[in-house]
User: Fold these one by one.
Assistant:
Number 1:
Amino acid sequence: MDDELILLNPGPAGTSKRVRDALLRGDMCHREPEFTSLLNRIRENLPHGLGLGDTHESIVVTGSGTAAMEMAVIGSVRAGRSALMVNNGVYGERMVKVAAAHGISVHEVAGSWNQPIDPEAVCAELAAHDDVDAVVCVQHETTTGLMNPVAELGALVAKTAAVFVVDATSSLAIEDPQPAGISADIICGSASKGLHGFPGVAFLLCSAKGLARIEAAPPRSVYLSPAAYLAPQRKGEVPFTPAVQILYALDEALAELAETGGPSARIQLYRERAALVRAQFTRVGLSTLVDERHRSNSVTLLRLPLGVSYKALHAQLRHRGYVSYAAQGKLAADFFRICTLGEIPWHRLEELEDALAASISAAR
Ligand SMILES: *Cc1c(COP(=O)(O)O)cnc(C)c1O
C-alpha cells in the first residue's frame, strides 16, 4: 500500500486488502438463499456493529449516500405535512433540495457554515409550526468539518410526535456521539465512509417510531421509498438488483470493524490522526475556519496559502502521493480540505507534513 496514492478526501474511503479481496467472492444471484444469508447478516450487523442493539432496524439500498438521504426525507413526512430542516452546509442544503424535488414543504433553520446550529432556534421553529412531521439535521457537515449538536436536538424532538432524521453518513464510526447516544429515528449512512467499505451501498437505521412513520408516508418514489424495501428485506429479499459485490465488501468491512475494537476504537484512531495532522497544519502555516471546539475528527477545512491556487496545490500533493479535496460551494475559491478517512498507513500521515510544505512552495 506504501506506493499507493493516499486518499485524503471525505469518501470514498481507502479500503483494506481484506475488504478489497471480498469483492472477489464470486458471482451470486440475489434471488438465491446465499443472498438472503448475506443480506440478513448485514442488516443485523449494521445496527449491532454500530452499538444500537435491537432498538433500530436497518434498510439497505444500492446507491450512494445521497440515496439514503432521499429515502429518509421521502419516508419521514406524511402527505400534507412538512419537514423542519437544519441547513448550515452543503449537505443540509441537499436535504432541502431533496424535499423540494418531491414537493415536500420545508421550514428551514439556516445557520452560518462555521457555527453549530443553535438548538434554541430549532426549538422556536418547531413551536411556531404544528405541521412538522420530521426534524432533519446533518451530524457532521462534511463541507466544513463542523459538528451539529444532534444529541441535544434528538432530546428535543423525542418529546414531540415528529421523527428525528440524522444524516450520520460522515460520522458513523468516526465521531461522538454515536447513534446510541442520539435519540434518532431515521439515521442515514453509507458503506464508503467510516465503515471503510466501497461506495455503492447506503442504509437507514430506523427506530420503531421511524419505522411507523415510513409505513405511513406516501409512496413518493418507485426506487427510493423506504417502505418498498422494508417488507421484502424482512423476508431476506430485495425489490431491485443489488450491488452484490459491494455488499460482500460491506459484510467484510463490518467484520473488520468489530474485530478491531468496534466504533469506539475507530473513533479513537480518528482522534489521534486529527491531532497528528492538525499539528502539522499549524507548523506549515495553514489556518482553518471552524473553531477547534466544533470540529470533527476527520475533515479539516484549510485556507489556501496566499498566491496558491487549489489546482496547483492539488497537483503538487498528488505528485507526492496524496489526493487532497477541494472545498465546496462558496468556499471553493479560498479553501481546500484534508480528510483522514479510511485505511491510511500511519507513516504516510507522518510524512504528510513534508509533502505539504514542499507542495506549497512548489505551487507558489
Ligand atoms: C458523503 C456524504 C453523503 C453522501 O454523499 P454521496 O456522494 O451521495 O455518497 C451524505 N451526507 C454527508 C454528510 C456526507 O458526508
Note: The pocket of pyridoxal-5'-phosphate is lined by residues 10-11, 64-66, 69, 91, 138, 142, 167, 169-170, 190 (CB under 6 Å).
Number 2:
Amino acid sequence: MSAVTGGRVSLPVARPLLGDEEAVAVQEVLASGWVAQGPRVAAFETAFAAKVNAAHAVAVTSATAALHVMLAVENLRPGDEVIVPSLSFIATANCVRYVGATPVFADVDPATANLTTDTVEPLITGKTRAVLAVHQCGVPADVRALRAMCEPHGILVLEDAACAAGSQAYGAPVGADARAAAWSFHPRKVITTGEGGMLTLDDPGRARRAAALRQHGMTMSAFDRHASGGVARESYDELGFNYRMTDLQAAVGLVQLGRLDEIVARRRAIASRYRALLADITELMAVAEPSYGTSNAQSFWVQLTPAAEHVDRDAVLGSLAERGIGARPGIMASHLEPAYRDHRLRVALPATEAHTRRALILPVFHEFTDADQDYVVTALLDAIRGRR
Ligand SMILES: *Cc1c(COP(=O)(O)O)cnc(C)c1O
C-alpha cells in the first residue's frame, strides 16, 4: 500500500524487503541445532560467488570486517599508502588504519561520486600499495581504467563493493574478476542478513588465508572439526579475528540473494523514474549512470546545483521531514570527521565537499509506489522553491 494514500505519511529512506521465506529459512536453521558458521554459510558463499562471477567467497560479519581481512591478506603495513575516497562511509578509510597503513584521500567525479584515474593519479607516490575503489551507492566505479593505470606500477586495485551487489560494469557483475571485493548485507544495502558481509577473491591462496583470518587464524573450521568426530586438531598459524557469520544470517542471505535480480530491477525502475521527473529541474543534479555500467540504485542522490545557491540543504531535509519523508544528507566526507582530525590532506577535495554539503539521498525501497514518489518529488520541489 502506498504510504501516501494509506494515512499518515511515513516514507523512510530505505526499508529491507523481508518476508515469510526468510522466516522459514531461519526456523529451519534453529530446528537443525547448528546455528553458528556451518553448512548455510558454506552454501551462501558458493551462491554469492556464482552470482558475482567471483572465484572464491568468504562470509564475514560485515563489509567492514571483509575490508579488514582484505587488507590483511594483502600484507599492508605501516608506511604503506592506500588511496581511498574521503566521500564514503567511514569504514572505507578506517580499514586502512586497522592494518596500520595510511589512507590518502582522493576526490571524486561529481556525477558518480566515484574515484577516477584523474583524481587518483596525482596522489600516487613510491609508497602507494593499493587503491581502494568504492562503487558508491551502487554506481560502478571504472575499475578497468584504474587497473590499467595502477597495475603496471605494481599498485593493487581493491574494491569496496559494500553497496554494489547486483550492479554491472562492462557487461559483467561488479566484482567479476576483482582481485578482492568487500560486500555488505547491512539492512541499508540492497539485500540483508541483519549484519553481514562477504569478501570475494580471485586467488585460492588468498581465499584460504582470508578464511583462516576470519576465525582466529585457525586452519580448520569448527564445522569440519565437528564433522571429523573431533579427532582432527586445528592449528593457528597467524594472528586472526572472530569475524564469523552465523548460519542464521546465511539462511536469510540465501533467500535474499535469490531475490536480488527482482530487487535491483525495482530499484532501477524507481531511479529512472526519479531521473525523468527531475530531468528539467536546473536546481538539481541527479546521480549519473556511467557509460560503462549500470547501478543497482542502492541509494539515489540529488545535489543542489549553483542554480540553487540560495537554498539551504538542511532546511530542505527539514521540510521533507515535516512531510513525513526520511530523506538523508548525502554521502559523508571522512576527512571532515573528528576521527580524521590529525589527517593531512594532500589535495583539495572540492567535489567531495560540494557533495557532502549539498546532496540529499531520497527514499528508494522495494514497496515504494509511484504515488509515494510523486509525493516526494512535489515536496522536494516545494522545498527548493520556497513553497509550503
Ligand atoms: C555500508 C558501507 C560499508 C560498511 O558496511 P558494513 O557491513 O556496515 O560494515 C563500507 N563501505 C561502504 C562504501 C558502505 O556503504
Note: Residues 260-278 form the longest helix (19 residues).
